[in-house]
Design goal:
By secondary structure, the protein is of the alpha/beta class. The protein folds into two domains: about 120 residues, 3-Layer(aba) Sandwich (Rossmann fold), CATH 3.40.50.2300; about 80 residues, Arc Repressor Mutant, subunit A (Orthogonal Bundle), CATH 1.10.10. Helix content is about 45%, strand content about 20%. Strands 2-1-3-4-5 form a five-stranded parallel sheet, sandwiched between helices. A four-stranded antiparallel sheet has the order 6-7-8-9. α4 links the parallel β4 and β5. α2 packs parallel to α3. The chain starts with a strand and ends with a helix. The mean pLDDT is about 85.
Length: about 210
């Protein structure tokens, strides 16, 4: 799994990344603007977002993320135990909050809960769609206007990932790492092979 830590205090940022390294591969940003750009370019399982930051604060970041339909779970960090800040963050689309200073155990517990909750929502949706293409995530069936597509195994997984990432530009390496994994013996060329097959299948229905 992968996490994005957007925190301007480098000491705190390092401590967070160190404490979650057994759960997540991490990227870091030290201001809201850089954090937003990373969130637009990469697929993360969770974002840890500080409120008070230079250039762009956390409230603005979460607002822009949700307007872009980037629905990655967000845990907001605040140095103030202020109910107004908490309510504002939740209304803007954050999923949970944590007041500084916090214990590592609480941070990990909240992140685990966010991941479980998000997976539950994802499964409950059952289907995802793009235009007239629909994927059933439980039966792993793909249809265009109720006509079946012939997609199996990682073909289905790759198309699912591309639909979920429809508002983000993803690279060949990102697709490979997500679908085949870092430890795969395959090469990134396999992405092109699968993409070619998927395109041919979709062209049958002029999508």
């Amino acid at each position: 799994m992968k996490a994005l830590v957007i925190e301007d205090d480098k000491r705190i940022s390092y401590a967070i990344c160190e404490s979650i390294e057994n759960m997540f591969e991490t990227d870091r940003a030290y201001n809201g603007e850089d954090g937003l750009e990373l969130a637009k370019q990469e697929i993360y399982d969770v974002i840890i977002l500080d409120i008070m930051m230079p250039i762009m604060d956390g409230f603005t970041v979460i607002e822009k993320l949700r307007k872009l339909e980037i629905l990655t779970p967000v845990l907001m960090l605040t140095a103030k135990d202020s109910s107004a800040d908490i309510v504002k963050g939740l209304k803007m689309g954050s999923d949970d909050y944590l007041v500084k200073p916090f214990k590592t155990e609480e941070l990990l517990a909240r992140l685990e809960a966010l991941i479980r909750r998000n997976r539950g929502k994802y499964i409950e949706e059952k289907t995802i769609s793009f235009k007239n293409l629909k994927l059933n995530l439980q039966t792993r069936e793909a249809k265009i206007d109720n006509r079946d597509l012939t997609l199996q195994g990682k073909q289905f997984d790759m198309l699912e990932y591309l639909i979920i990432s429809k508002n983000i530009i993803v690279t060949r390496n990102q697709i490979f790492n997500k679908i085949w994994g870092f430890n795969s013996f395959a090469t990134t060329n396999v992405v092109d092979v699968y993409a070619s097959f998927i395109r041919k299948e979709l062209k049958k229905y002029r999508l």
